[in-house]
Amino acid sequence: MSLVRPSLDRSDAKALKPHFVFDETLARYECGEIPAGDYYAALRRALSIDIPDAQFDHGWNAIFTGEMPGIDALLRSLEGRVPLYVFSNTNVDHQRVWSSRFAQVLRPFERIFTSCELGKRKPAPEAFHAVAQAIDVPPERILFFDDTLRNVEGALAVGMHAAHVRSTAQVEEAIAKYRWSDVNERK
Predict the structure, then answer these.
(1) Which of 11, 95, 123, 127 sees the fewest Cβ atoms within 10 Å?
(2) Please, which residues bridge with residue 112 across strands?
(3) 63-80 pLDDT tens trace
(4) What pTM does this model have?
């Protein structure tokens, strides 16, 4: 993920990308501990660039390019059969964008949990436990999907069923693999 001002060309963006890291400042931003302006100031220092917050916002929110093809139909097919929840490491500014842009695909979810509201991020065990407690389901009865392997490993470590996925087909394969009697299926 890189943040690029409009005047930077693609080669400049590639040069910046190795300097963008998921660090403690990003974790604090995604846990709701610091506002966007403080995070952007830290990025300016780390990336040695001087752009206004509005340009950071534009680049920061440009990562949302579209939903995973086929995921809306899959979610609708599961709606009412199993409880569906979102747990996302995100910040308030991103949440405002994706919750609006993807409102239709988010409809089947009963609740959306975000790190910026929980004050905890995946893959921390306390983050997974907080979600399990909030939905009143023990971790071993939860089937968790994520596109980041560390988060999947974190879910497995607390006893959840978990799958590393990057496509709708992988989600479907993971669902087919798990015995629904092992997770919180509705009868």
Answers:
(1) 11
(2) 86
(3) 888 899 999 999 999 999
(4) 0.84
